[in-house]
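Researcher: I need the complex structure. Ligand is adenosine-5'-triphosphate. Inputs:
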Amino acid sequence: MGSFFHRKTKMIKKFLTYYTFPIIFVWLLVVSYNSSKRKPDSVMELITDPSWLYDWPKWLDIPLMKWINDGFKVFNEKYGIYFEVINDFLLGAILSLKKFLIVLPWPLVIALVVAIVFFSSGRKLGTTVFVGICTFFIGFLHPKFWDKAIETTSIMIIGILICIIIGIPLGIAMARNNKLRNAILPVLDLMQTIPSFCYLIPGIMLFGLGAVPAIIATVIYAVPPLVRLTDLGITLVDTEVIEAAEAFGASKKQKLLGVQLPLALPNIMQGINQCTMMALAMVVIASMIGTRGLGDEVLLGLQQLNVGKATEAGLAIVLLAIVLDRITQAYGKKIQDRNKPPK
Amino acid sequence: MSKIEINNIYKIFGPNAQQVMPMVKDGASKEQVMEETGHTVGLDNVSLSIEEGEIFVCMGLSGSGKSTLIRHINRLIDPTSGEVLVNNIDVCSLDEKEILEFRKRTMSMVFQRFGLFPHKTIIENVAYGLEIQEVPEDQRHEIAQGQIKAVGLEGFEHQYPAQLSGGMQQRVGLARALATNPEILLMDEAFSALDPLIRSEMQNQLVELQAKLKKTIVFITHDLDESLKLGDHIGILNGGRLVQVGKPEDIILNPADDYVKAFVKDVNRSKVLRARTIMTKLDKFDKSSVNPSSTYKYDEDTFIEDIVPKVLKDRSTIEVIDKEGMTTGFITSDELSVALTKTE
Ligand SMILES: Nc1ncnc2c1ncn2[C@@H]1O[C@H](COP(=O)(O)OP(=O)(O)OP(=O)(O)O)[C@@H](O)[C@H]1O
Ligand SMILES: [Mg+2]
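Model: Output:
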């Protein structure tokens, strides 16, 4: 009985692999032919006029664009209300974070940054002073840049938070389940291959211009490294250490929270670091769709052919990148030093 | 009822273990299976029973399946076929929750490569088992402190494992396993990284501990002297097969095959064999030749290294007595020379 079912499922599988793709392909050909406007009048025309062999014929065209646009329209009509809610929520989050940071006196913000670096780097004085100076120079380059940098940072922080909320659990799930990993990895590859500003388009269509599509694009663009490194970090934990936890009767949850995550933390921090850098790049690009911030200044400088202005703004972005990079890296380094593998 | 009973365990590593099983059951060797199917035979029809309160030593060359065997006992590895009974409960029949409870209450393990938690301090490492058992922090640190002292690592409580030497790390692993005070201890080459002095001291400690607490210990080692010193029974693995199980003297005197012979050939027999094993029994001994003035009485459990000087130097005869003081046999230079000669 069992072997019969086994044979049957095997046959079905074989059938599917051999026949589904040809069938889908033929169906696509028929559909695209039917929906195209300029068809050949008869088969004779194809023979007498072979130009269709030189230029790709108009009737051999999948109407993917039309499908997506139609689908999108229906989608927007049906679910637009949810996107409005998301939009309001994200915009609210960015605005309140921005307001909070802008209201603070700038010396206090610098002091805060310095304090964070000092403690997260394990009291390394050199790094701390360096980051402090970099932070100071952002405003020092141009007073206007201070608020702009805070605006950029606010968008990034919200974006990175979303990345963390999505990326770390996904990475954990992948580390636990090989099938899921095999399903997700190609998607991550795809997300990283598509040119980053393509992500702006669906964002704009759903949310209009501004900071929210920038965040959506940022998340899509910046989440893959975090997912990968979380997965990698957990997979790399020494099997004997995991076995030790199991041997003492640790449950899955105790293993994850008490052993795997803490040991994967250097890799996860590395992921957050990369995520941060990519988010910054994306937020700068997003100035093209009206996201305000430092990128906006670069764009303005270029439009006015003002090289000095564009360079100043570019420098400010570099400084911001350095500050964010140091903050996110310092902590990872500290725990990595402690977790050196046993000799 | 034995404390641990292992019945016809097979373990095959590889994607299609079940399909390879028939071949292994038909007696194909580890090398053959590897060549034909790419699967590794970890264990091949291993059965043994371990009694409560004994130290069972498992020996064998690298890759012979010792670590694989010990991992079946707490089910870190599921067998491809066969059963493992601990306290008469089939370990493989336990569901996820029960297995956690079983590991918490019944046994702990010392790992070959230590398996310490690099992100926890030494005291947190040692207290880990108790932490999982939800013992309150001050209480578990107190117990951990005691174990750290017992293995001679006082003062290192708040260091991290990476700051300790290999031998010190191994002792942390030992302390961690002892801290939960389990019925069964699984020790995978627990002393291999220790220097000879500490090693010998740890062995003595284990023997003492065993005399007091009567735990059931499964001990893996490469070192024959260590296995002879500690083991009540010794099992020898070769290529996943259990080739011989027996008391230390059995293994020395009657090695089952060339593999075991090669193992035991360099052993210092006088440190292993006991008077009882080599004596000529009372009823078979010709007492007429014995000079009573140069006869000494020795307990039957005495190792012959303690007897050798008396016999060889003073030309004395040894009268072997049991616990009640009754004479059970005699040893002269004849018995000694037979016992100490290598069997070829
Ligand atoms: N997870 C695994 N996957 C595949 N093969 C394995 C795995 N674990 C062990 N093996 C194989 O099983 C066999 C026995 O390995 P095991 O670790 O039990 O040896 P050992 O006797 O403990 O050796 P050592 O003295 O070197 O520790 C080896 O051939 C090894 O390659
Ligand atoms: Mg081993």
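Model: Summary of the prediction. Chain B has a mean pLDDT of 91.
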